[in-house]
Amino acid sequence: MIRTHPTWIEINLSAVASNCANIIRDTDTPLMAIVKGDAYGHGAVEVSRAAMAGGASWLGVARFGEARVLRQNGIDAPILVLGMITPNEVDEAIASNVTLTLHSLETLQLFSARARAAHQTVSAHLKVDTGMGRLGVFAEEIVSFARQAQAAGGIYIDGMYSHLAAAEVTHPLNEMQYQRFDMAVRAMEESSFRPRWVHLANSFAAFYQPQCRYNMVRVGNVILGLRIRINQPLPEYYLPVLRWKAQLASCRLLPAGWNVSYGANYITPHEELIGVIPVGYGDGLRGLPGNQIIIDGIKSPVVGRVRLDQLMVRLPHPYPMGEEIVIIGQQGDSSIWVHDLAALYQISQVDFTTLIHRRVPRIYI
Ligand SMILES: Cc1ncc(COP(=O)(O)O)c(C=O)c1O
Q1: What is the DSSP code string of 61-128?
Q2: pLDDT, tens digit, for every residue of 285-294?
């Protein structure tokens, strides 16, 4: 038990490694571990190392700054920047052997000019917009775009990819996006351009649309043991990675009719044991009805308003200061996982984990 902090997050890195190994086995496809957004708030450097230990071939980040942090921490795995790179960052990206997303004529001209000026080659993955309406060129344009990149010089096309917009098997956009991407892949093949890496599948498609796997799957949620769909458990060998714990700050018997927290919206109906937990919305916990914590294996309801640094709970029994509280995780027979809070708050699991504030220390196990 870790007792140094009032509240802390435990990140189980061996669970990350085993989840990655299981994804590779279950999909029978090489894995790009998506570690953007500080690995959805779990810690990009640590999660990246664990993912590589679990057999991931690539890492995917959103911005070059995230790739720089990985390189600075000695991670020399192939890294793809999925999003924007600024002109000021391109030279450093080329020098640090980071692969960039080639998604427009402007990026083509920028990468080519910088690579040629440095007498280097920039490695790039072509992005196809198959229906996300974000970055990319249309499938019909991919071959002429690849030809332009080749003619411009300085660019090595190492991969091509696209990203799915709907995580529902039945959504017609999925099949449409797959068909468009496949058309682009075939057009590239017929023009003898098929690059080494071809990838379309995120967590959802990696598991539910095997035709989208090609020769790499890009997975974020499942490497972290987060569900693909909030209501559908993963196979039991995919392990949860994040646990959030705290210590009880105080437990007092309050008289009937006593106000609890700001705003006087909870008045004790009778004598009640009220516990104070040093966690609040300043840590990333929402102040919404239905919040519970686990103490002594028992779920206890939050009462009164959740404020910046503290919340109050109604306790079944008296407990000493320092008693371990579980906000996310399991204690005895009770559990509250990220998908439970995401369902309660009606947000995605990643919306929740990325907003757990940095002041909550991450302890890596
Ligand atoms: C381009 C791209 N690929 C893959 C992923 C991973 O998605 P998931 O976490 O659903 O596996 C993301 C995440 O949003 C992404 O933006």
Answers
A1: ESSHHHHHHHHHTT--S-EEE-S---HHHHHHHHHTT-EEEE-SHHHHHHHHHHHHHTT--EEEEEEB
A2: 998 889 999 9
